Amino acid sequence: MADSFEGVLAGLMDRFPAIKGAGFLDIDGSEIAATPASALERIKAGGAYGGIQLRRLQTAEQAAGRGGVRHVDLVAEQGRLLAFGVGSEYQLILVLDGAPAPGVVAAASEAVIALEAGI
């Protein structure tokens, strides 16, 4: 099963050279699949922070009676991370050097659907 997850991640990176790392993690930041190995630490750190933000924003949005949060954009000195909720227990993390290129969010949303189909 991890092979299919890795295929989704590799496909995103092939389409968008600005993506320097991609990971499929549980909501607490534990790795299920990630690529490349050189970006693993950034992916795991992004998963830890992304999971916290996704949970907190989901709780706040539900309390306010609004729709759910699908992704968060985290900007740090080391670069940019996008965290996408995958179901209620997983997340897709993208490591970027700069602002997301046009089409990255839409492609990541499609990847979320593929990842959800695999879980």
Describe the protein.
There is one protein chain. With 119 residues, this protein is an alpha+beta fold. It has a single domain, classed as Beta-Lactamase (2-Layer Sandwich). It has 3 helices and 5 strands, in the order αββαβββα. It has helices at residues 2-15, 40-63, 104-118, and strands at residues 19-26, 31-35, 71-76, 79-86, 90-96. A 5-stranded antiparallel sheet has the order 2-1-5-4-3, sandwiched between helices. Strand 3 and strand 4 form a beta hairpin. The chain is globular, with a radius of gyration of 13 Å. The model has no long low-confidence stretch (mean pLDDT 90).
Gist of the model:
The chain has three helices and five strands; from the N terminus they run αββαβββα. With 119 residues, the chain is of the alpha+beta class.
